[in-house]
């Protein structure tokens, strides 16, 4: 499997101008920013909004997006976590920040054939990582099986806040299979997005923190996601 993947990466890069992937940098910390991949957007636009949190209980947060920068995330794991798809994307929470880690995670919502995304303490990050280096772009992925999937942003209420307050929540949708093949069905009131890492400074941890940056990995991120001229790239 690996040699094949390497081969296809090689042929991709050799077939295109080396300038033809967006310029990237490396950093331990990053924000995640919305890149709309649906033909439609919300009004007003949510493009370039940030992955953020809505508190729903002690160390439990529903993943939402907001116009201002959300938490700084980092990718946690060893080399073997990369191989076995057991990396996770963490952020340092608590007060002062870094008292404990929270991970991007998801819980299936069977009624909608989609999963609600959370940023919670105490649950493993279940195979959440940035895309591997052979992918031309760096973006958040969940490696579960081989079926196609996408993140979506949906205009929804969050039970904790009652029925009158609307949030742009983040869900994750996997393709379903029927007689005519596999399809990703974007639920009503949702748009498909990728979450793209923008380099950010990962703060030192305070004295006595439960978080650790020992396994924080340097990742491929962009200095300003808003400056990427996607039309230049043809993958
Ligand atoms: C970002 O969005 C543009 C369309 O606005 C699309 O062409 C491009 O492929 C997207 N990039 C990623 C990594 O999702
Ligand atoms: C970070 O990765 C290390 C190495 O795999 C692991 O031992 C540790 O539990 C991870 N931390 C979290 C909070 O998942
Ligand atoms: C969920 O997926 C199943 C099987 O693909 C389909 O029959 C059902 O209508 C879907 N439910 C919703 C709410 O989209
Ligand atoms: C699931 O769908 C129902 C009906 O469309 C909606 O009210 C509910 O908010 C959805 N749940 C999520 C997590 O999007
Ligand atoms: C979200 O949906 C509610 C109910 O349909 C609507 O009142 C509200 O304007 C919507 N918000 C956005 C940002 O589209």
TrEMBL record:
<dbReference type="InterPro" id="IPR057229">
    <property type="entry name" value="DUF7907"/>
</dbReference>
<dbReference type="Pfam" id="PF25484">
    <property type="entry name" value="DUF7907"/>
</dbReference>
<feature type="domain" description="DUF7907">
    <location>
        <begin position="28"/>
        <end position="199"/>
    </location>
</feature>
<keyword id="KW-0732">Signal</keyword>
<protein>
    <recommendedName>
        <fullName>DUF7907 domain-containing protein</fullName>
    </recommendedName>
</protein>
<feature type="signal peptide">
    <location>
        <begin position="1"/>
        <end position="15"/>
    </location>
</feature>
